[in-house]
Amino acid sequence: MKGSDLTAYIRSLPHSNRTKFNHHIRVNAMLRHHGITLKADKPRYTVPMPTVYATGDLARFFAACDIRQLTYFKTLLMTGVRMQESKWLEWSDLTNGML
Predict the structure, then answer these.
(1) Residue 27 · residue 3 · CB < 8 Å
(2) DSSP string for residues in the chain
């Protein structure tokens, strides 16, 4: 097996470049575990910049929320917790007003 074989295999996958990059890392780790070192081209991908909302946009959004929604969305905004993580938040996660 050569590095070009791994590169060809990764390029043939019907996935995004980010997923191909992750597969490349995992396959290389498995090969290294078995004492095989290959020099193969890593797939490249760019991480998109997150959308930043203007203060006015946020004010209009929060004005349209009821108290429950307002609490939820402000928690996401102020803590950086992702939506999936927020599903599992409990009061015991708060210590001295900090999440």
Answers:
(1) no
(2) --HHHHHHHHHHSSS-HHHHHHHHHHHHHHHHHTT-----PPP---PPPPP---HHHHHHHHHTS-HHHHHHHHHHHHH---HHHHTT--GGG-BTTB-
Reported as a single tens digit per residue, the pLDDT across 2-26 is: 888 888 888 898 988 889 999 999 9
The 3 state secondary structure assigned to 37-52 is: CCCCCCCCCCCCCCCC
Rounded Cα–Cα distance for residues 79 and 30 (Å):
37
pTM of the model: 0.47
Check pLDDT > 90 for residue 83. Answer: no
Tokens standing for 69?
Answer: 């929604």
pLDDT score of 27 more than 80: yes
Are the CB atoms for 99 and 79 separated by under 8 Å?
yes
